[in-house]
Amino acid sequence: MTDRGWGRPFDDPIEIGGRKLVTLREAGEYIAALPPKVHDAPEWQAAMEGLILVVEQGGPTMFARIGIMRAPRKTKSRCSGEAQASQEIQGYPMNRMGRRTIYAMLAIVVLLLIWQFFASL
User: Rounded to an integer, what distance in angstroms lies between the CA atom of residue 60 and that of residue 67?
Assistant: First the structure.
């Protein structure tokens, strides 16, 4: 098994949108095939960035998996008018929800870089 590349399989396949994503390539193709409104959401952009980092830098596929598993939940609540209204009523404006996702993905990227550093020692 290689440490890098699009052909690497996830430790556990991801079931999303009626599909089963087994490799990093399948996950990238799934994200690329999303409608532009969904694909351009910050959550999916962060998921794709995490996926590319795992492909190029190596490291655990779990980092990419986390981003892909979180993005649909955030996008669904972001696109739903009822969810948006309920979140604003609860005091969580939508722009903060996107920011939280970006912070979570940033933490994943930092962990990946730390892992890469210690793996190279």
Answer: 13
The single-letter DSSP state of residue 61 is: T
Q: How many other β-carbons are positioned within 10 Å of the β-carbon of residue 37?
A: 9
pTM of the model: 0.61
Encoded tokens for 67: 């981003």
DSSP string, 64-114: HHHHHHHHHHHHHHHH-HHHHHHHHHTT--HHHHHHHHHHHHHHHHHHHHH
The angle subtended at Cα 62 by Cα 99 and Cα 120, nearest 5°, is 100
pLDDT in tens, 43-55: 888 889 889 888 9
CB crowding 2-23: b at 16 or more within 10 Å, else e: eeeebebebeeebeeeeeebeb
Q: What percent of the chain has pLDDT over 70?
A: 75
28, 21 Cβ separation under 8 angstroms: no
Backbone angles phi, psi at 4, to 5 degrees: -135, 165
Q: Crossing angle for the helix pair 94-119 and 42-57, nearest 10 degrees?
A: 10
- pLDDT for the residue 74: 58
